[in-house]
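Input sequence (295 aa), recorded before submission:
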Amino acid sequence: AEASSDAGVEGDAPACDAPCAPATLLVESGFEPTIATDGKNVFVRVGDTIQSCSVNGCASASTVFSAGSATPRLVAASSSHVYWNDGNAVFGCAGAGACGTPSTIVDLGALALTGLSASTASNWVHAVGWSGNTLRVVRASLDGSVQTQVISQSIASSTSGAVVAVPQSTRVYWAEDGVPALFDCVSPPCASPDHSTAGLATSPLGLAATIGAVFFGTTSGLYVASTDLASFKQLAGGGLVERVVLATASEANVYFGESTGAAWTLASCATGASTCPTPSVLHTTTTPITALTTD
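Predicted structure, token format:
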């Protein structure tokens, strides 16, 4: 499962950047490929249902809310709320208990939502979607009381991808699929992107950002770009990297799941590294890593 590109936890399992045995928090049938945490609880989607479980584990998950069946089924979390989409709208609820009437955080209307981002280190929730030749990024306050358009831009033969905010910053990055590209807006709202990449060979599959760099997965490894997107290079790996997250508490490490053949590896690199030819391997499995999140 994937959350937002911003935020995973193993309960009381030790924080480590070396091989360690994962702690089982919850066993369910039908997990959607999305997961998020506020540092106290882990949020997942099982079919149309948003569920929560303590980071220390739980015998059975608590139901937060039952949403519709439209895809993609995403979930994200901030320091105060859990968020999910129902079709092209994003809803939110404070805390991890049952949610009677959720708040509408963002409604993209006719635009197809492709990305949802929130974290414990950001004061905003971000959503990105597209329709026809239009891509739109919107941000909202954590409770949805304030909504701002980050950008509305024209695209050609493309769709929107992921979106992520730099922790403790107004800067936002988003991806375009089809004609692969990354864009940013330093101080929303923006009439046009402040910066963009040129020459990406494949679409960015997951995003994570610090004040000094932006990281993204591809079909051929983990890449890193400068903050102004003027340059980018392969940082680590060479297989399929779909999930990329940042350790928001310290921003010291970027974590990613990589597939090479039948093997899946959860690994990390220092965010300040110029290259990472030998990432720290946390876990290796033959089970696909479909979701990744950090607190």
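Checked by second reader. The longest strand covers residues 124-131.
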